[in-house]
Amino acid sequence: MGGQFLEVDFQEDGSGAGGYAKEMSKEWHAAAANMLSKQCEEVDIIVTTAAIPGRKAPLMITKDMVAKMKSGSVTVDLAAETGGNVETTVKDEKFVTDNGVTCLGYTDLASRLPTTSSSLYSNNISKFLLSMGPQTTRVPEYMYIDHEDEAVRGMLAVEKGKLMWPAPLPPPPPPKVEEKAIEPEVIDYKAPYVLGAKNAGYLGASVLGVGCISPDPAFSAMFTTFCLSNIIGVQVVLGVTHALHSPLMAVTNAISGTTALGGMHLLAHSNSGGVTTLAALATTLSTVNIVGKA
Length: 294
Fold this sequence. Notes:
Rossmann fold, 4 domains, four-stranded mixed β-sheet, two-stranded antiparallel ribbon, elongated, transmembrane, cell inner membrane, EC 7.1.1.1
């Protein structure tokens, strides 16, 4: 019918001795009042059952909350015998508020509904028996005892002269696998900077070393230009998106072709062993670059 339990947004154990509720704290009552005040504007029926043995029932629904309910709504106070949970409850009477809310405070509801109670109980029992009878098996006069059905097996006492009670206990739940705590990964934030500083130091030392052994200033200038062009080229390629890789490869192929032609020109007119070596290296690497991207 769409009914649902309401939970108070406050953690506190309300169970007491003998299945009755215990008296809750002021903080819990404040949170409950806030929640119930909002719910009274939406619900049509409120049923309260909070009772404490030997003490006055706690007040849960105030007059202001009842005043917010729609006309035609109903409150049923099952704790009316000890004062009631609804402030508008009148013991053993039906009271209608000014805004049309019916408040029931009967203390003998159980004796007022014997026919309904018997009908509900007999309906449950008949449905349980029919689940084992011909309506389920489609075989006349055959009762199917399903031992896998917890309800049927729990009620089974004797079967074919054999005592079947009590029912075997259900299998224990599988053991809970304890998950090992995952240690958080320790991130060394200094490592990238230290590595970058080392690489920069190695590169600087290498450049200075080549400069010290260079035969003339022209070689130093060309070597410096070569190193800087490599650094710029790497940075440019790393900064290009994947969508532009194909046009970039076409441009680099053109550049490689130019360097290959320059290397072959130097090979033909070189008078120095160092120049010949560099020209051969440039021609070889450019050719490999062109063939590899073709």
